[in-house]
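[Automated response] Your request has been received and processed.

Submitted sequence:
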Amino acid sequence: MTENAPMQRTPLYETHIAQGGRLVPFAGWEMPIQYASILEEARAVRNSAGIFDVSHMGRLEISGSGAAGLLDSVLSVNASGLREGRARYNVICDETGGIIDDCIVYRRSDSAFMLIPNASNTEAVIQWLAQWRPADSDVEIVNVTSEFAMIAVQGPDAVGIVDNLCDIDASAVRPFTTVQAMIGPSQAWLARTGYTGEDGFEIIVASDRVVDIWLALVDAGCVPCGLGARDVLRLEAGLLLHGNDMDTDHNPYEAGLDRFVKPDREGYVAGPALMRIRDESLSRKLVGFVVTGRGIARHGYAIMSGAESIGIVTSGGHSPTLETSIGLGYVGIEHAEPGAVIQIDIRDRLVDAKVTELPFYSRRRSE
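Generated structure:
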C-alpha cells in the first residue's frame, strides 16, 4: 500500500460507527480501537463473550494439485499432513530463518487451502508464495480478502452463543477444526480458533452477510470489542504480534516458537537456515516478565540489568486480568531464566521486573 493510498474499510465500517466505535488507522485499514473502554472490553471477553472485526486480516485461497507441495515448501509445518477441515498455526520464514509472518493454514479439501496472514503482511506473503511457485505449477493463489469478512467471537460464553444461532452443534467442533454452518439465513465457515486465550470461533462469511451476523451476535450478548482489547488479551495469553515480537530480524527459535517448526523436510526453503539455528546456541531469547515495581512497560523501552542494557520491550501494558504490568522482550540468553530479576527503563527510571513463564494467563489454569 502506498503512503498516500486511501485507508481501507471493512464491511462493518458503518456498523462500528453506529455502535460508537472509535476508529483509528491500523495496517492500512480504519479499524475500531475501542468502543467504551479497552479494559471493560477485555474483561467482557474473559468473563462472558466479546466480538471483534478481524476482516482486515488477509484471506488467501491456494488451490490446485500442487497446493500442498507449495505450502510445504514455505510454511514451517507440513500442510500436506493436514486432514480436511483441520487448521494449523505456522510461521513463514525467509531463507535466513527470519519470520516474514505468522499465519493459520486451513485445509478446505484435498487440493484447496486457505491461509490467513496478518493485514500488514498479506502482500508480502502473496509475493513469497509466488516466488516459490514452480513455473509449471497449476497452483492458483487468489486474494479473496475483499470478498469475505471475518469476525471473532471469544470468551467462556462464545461457543454457547454461536451454538444457539447456527444449525450445527457448535460445541462439538474441536479446536483448530473448521466446519460449514448456517447462521440464520447466511452460510458461514466456523473455525474454532482465536487470538485471545479464550475459547470461541473465528467466522468467515460473505462480505454482504456479515452485518446481519454481527448484529445477531451482539443481540445474543456479545460485547463489541476493538483492537485495543484484542492486544491486551493476546499479551495476557502470551501470544506474539508480528511486527512487535517477531519479524525478519528474529527467528522462531529465539521467539519461542520452535514447537511450530519442522525444519527437517526436503524442499523446505527455510529448512537449512533453521536447522543451523536450531543446532547452535542462542544468544537471545524472547521472555515474558511481570513488573514488580510501579510503572507500565511499553514497546521500545529498554530492558536493563543494573547499568547494562540487555534487551528491549517488544510488547507491554497493564493486565486487567492479573492487575499488574506485563510485557515481552528479547534479552541475552543469560538473563532469560524464569525468576531472573531485570529492570525496565520507564521514562529514565529503572523499575524492577521478574522474568516469568508464559503464558501469563491461561483459562485452563483459571478454571
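Summary generated for your ticket: The radius of gyration is 21 Å. The first strand starts at residue 8 and ends at 9.
If you did not submit this request, please reply to this message.
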